[in-house]
Write the structure tokens for this entry.
Amino acid sequence: MKLSRIPASFRNARTAIPVVFLSALCHGSLLAQVAPAPTSMPVDAETTVLNPFEVQAGKNEGYQAAGVQSASKLAMAIKDVPNTVTVLTEQFLKDIAAQNLGDAMQWVTGVSSNLGARNQDGFSIRGFGAILTYVDGFRDSQEWGSGEMAQVAQLEILKGPASNLYGNMRGFGGVINRVTKKPQDKNFQQAEVVIGSFDQYRFTFDTTGPISTDKSWMYRVNAAYTNNGSYRDLRHLKRYFVTPVITKRLSPATTLTFSLELLRTETQEDLGVPLQIDPATNTLVVTALPRSRQLGEPWENTTLEKESGRLYFNHKINQNWSVRAAAITTFWNNPIEQVEALSIAADRRTLTRQAFHLNRWENHHVFEVDLNGKFTTGPFTHNVLFGYEWNRENGRSNVTRRPLASIDIYNPVYGTPKPDFTLAIPATNLHFQNGIYGYFANDQVTFWKDHISVFYGMRWDRATSHRIIELPVPSGADVADPANYSTTPRYGFVLRPDINLRIYAQYSEAFQPIFGSTTPDFKALNPTVGSTREAGVKRTFFNGRLNVEVAYYKIENSNVAVRLQPPLNSFFANAGSQYRIGQELNFGYNTGNFNIIGGIIQSRSKQDLNPGITAPVITPYHTSWQMSGKYTFPREGVFKGLSVGLGAYPRRNVIYTALSRNGTLPAYTRFDLSMGYKVNPKLDFNLNVYNLTDEMYYLGVVSPTIFPGSPRGFRGTMRYTF
């Protein structure tokens, strides 16, 4: 399948242009943080001192980030990136006591968590899934409930597809990139202890420094142990994590880094709370159960094991050219035994259930090399990036299901034995081997005293899929699907009227090969294809302390993969199309004592997932926002060392569909409180109170169940630097 090279036009310009230019005059703030710069600096004297490939997260101050790596596979100032970019700094992640991606991503405008089994760290950005994350700009295959934050220096979220840089994004909404903590040539050790509600205990340790006397060898080790209970019955989590990193400076221009990531998580899936159909109104209602009520069994268990080795090579060839390469191998093992909810019986209290078993493992191998060059031809300054990515994954997925005794949802009696899954006929049983092989080239041309930049990029991909289907007998079909080819462009411009203002527009295409899923007759699914258009303004005020970003976007795709209904819910089909349009405002303010970030997004979507069968679903415009701020008292005075923060997370009514009917998630507003006290340069304490007003709310729906949010809880943190 081949995508178009050039769109006919930049559609919806009449809507985008007023939004863009009106925003240039506004005064507010910006979530996508920009490094401060004096307003007196002339435009043609502005320089970027960041390394072409490495983010210097240590240069961040408070909630302000110096630059971003994921947006262009180059470290660059955020204000020069022609996309909406959000960066959550290490300080912000500490202030909210983030332990996983879910804790952090809720504070990113336009992001929501995907719910349901094995999707704990899946997210939707601008309404499109983005379950695959990146580490230091390279593919990580992050999935299924890890997302450990102990080694994270900052989080970067680039919104909108950028296939010419990333290929198979597994989502059109954006890219999540974790920038890790790097070895340092000075000794540093820090320990952290967390005690929280629901029997939560966590310990982390961070140590770094030189190994050799000439400091050409450096190391860093981040480790974490987490033992959490839950506000949900029968649920518990244990996580073990360690990542040692070694860096060798081969020369002033060359470094070699090796990292090893080891992770093991033991937990249980959440069954949610059953939905019911009110016979009087024929609408959906939430069963009136305690927020803690869980309708599974004590024998449920989900294990996640990850082993990942990464080798990075960085070399500055000369003043104009740099190269980096990465070789990555990752192994996942994910055995699961859990209970699945089916339906409520006619008595409206008996839940029919079944037992589910998954035996899945995956190997991922990635090699990528990037070449960056900066040079001048006449009045034009070029910033070019060439790259090649080789990505191969293989694994096995075996799913079986067995009948299981029903349970009384109002008076549950647990203890139904685990069935013998070896007696069941597998629902799916296949080996798979998939590949993505891509070349990409990009050039950003700047001229007219740096007032104008135009950029153009292209990526060429080949996606392959090979499956050995072991049904109905072990000697089943050996299927090599036809290769999919794509050519995906990205282009646009950035205007710089002065040092504080950026006006941009961009168009890009993306495609998503659908691996690991088949139709009921074991045929491959066609890739999902799509495009995005975005235009916006980035404006800084008060010497870079106050930042505002406004964007208009439209994202659309087709060949969407849809899971079939039971009993075929292990299979998928290509069905229809989706699009989402919206306007987004992000803001941030940063001084020595006051930090604030927030954003608001208004969006509307259309889904036509059963063309010719049902009418397309068109939603009205929906608005959501969140804001978080912190005030640090002056260093002199009665309250020196004290900081106080408050986050607000309001959500309006949301209409959802389940059991072939509509229902409504009620509106709510959740407040989170944080307090910090720095005793001395070595010791500090933090207290975080989540859902301060103990609001009853629901996270979302996965038919036929709904997932309640957490009641009021706390985390207390003690951090000591040696």
About this structure: DSSP finds four helices and 41 strands in the chain. The longest strand covers residues 380-408.
